[in-house]
Write a structure and sequence with these properties.
The protein has about 180 residues and is an all-alpha fold. It has two domains: about 90 residues, RNA polymerase sigma factor, region 2, helix turn helix motif (Rna Polymerase Sigma Factor, Chain: A), CATH 1.10.1740; about 50 residues, Arc Repressor Mutant, subunit A (Orthogonal Bundle). About 85% of the residues lie in helices and about 0% in strands. The chain is built from seven helices and no strands. The protein starts with a helix and ends with a helix.
Length: about 180
């Protein structure tokens, strides 16, 4: 723990913007403040980030130090930075949870929508004549080629294509 009398020339130098005075304060407090942040977070990277933020605040706020315990003043800033970090982390957690809920909701809606479309498709397929329904099933559900379908039905491929085209057109009309 540094005494204010020992720090007074450095603090005065910092208030005047002397970089070497800031450097001396950093040298004096860096390990203690890093330890403080590390004990609170348990994370080296986060502790480094918070320490860097603290020293930026030190540069910004040194003129507001009016005397008293410099350690107390500096650790109060460190405490505020840590609580800002926690609040930010909490906000981030809430945002992530909200996004997760939204994605799950969208997924459920999409699944329901897909299920509704499949149900509607089943209903509309039953409205087609058996021949057209069989053509559509062979081509799109069984993935049989047009050539194979024509051969199975003993008809020219052009006839098969034409029947399938008319059947799909009718199915689209029914689906809308």
């Amino acid at each position: 723990m540094a005494e204010n009398d020992d720090l007074a020339p450095m603090i005065t130098g910092c208030k005047k913007g002397a970089p070497e005075c800031f450097s001396q304060l950093v040298d004096i407090y860096a390990s203690r403040l890093f330890g403080y942040f590390y004990r609170l977070t348990g994370d080296n990277e986060v502790s480094d980030d918070l320490l860097s933020e603290l020293f930026v605040k030190l540069v910004e706020k040194i003129s507001s130090f009016k005397g008293g315990s410099f350690d107390g003043w500096l650790f109060k800033i460190a405490s505020n930075i840590f609580y800002d970090y926690l609040r930010g982390k909490q906000r981030q957690k809430k945002l992530l949870e909200a996004q997760k809920k939204q994605l799950e909701s969208n997924k459920q809606k999409a699944q329901q929508s897909d299920n509704d479309r499949i149900d509607k498709l089943q209903i509309q397929l039953k409205k087609l004549d058996v021949d057209t329904r069989e053509l559509i099933m062979l081509r799109f559900y069984s993935q049989v080629s047009f050539k194979e379908i024509a051969k199975m039905r003993s008809e020219p491929i052009g006839t098969t294509l034409s029947k399938l085209h008319r059947g799909l057109k009718k199915l689209r009309e029914l689906m809308n």
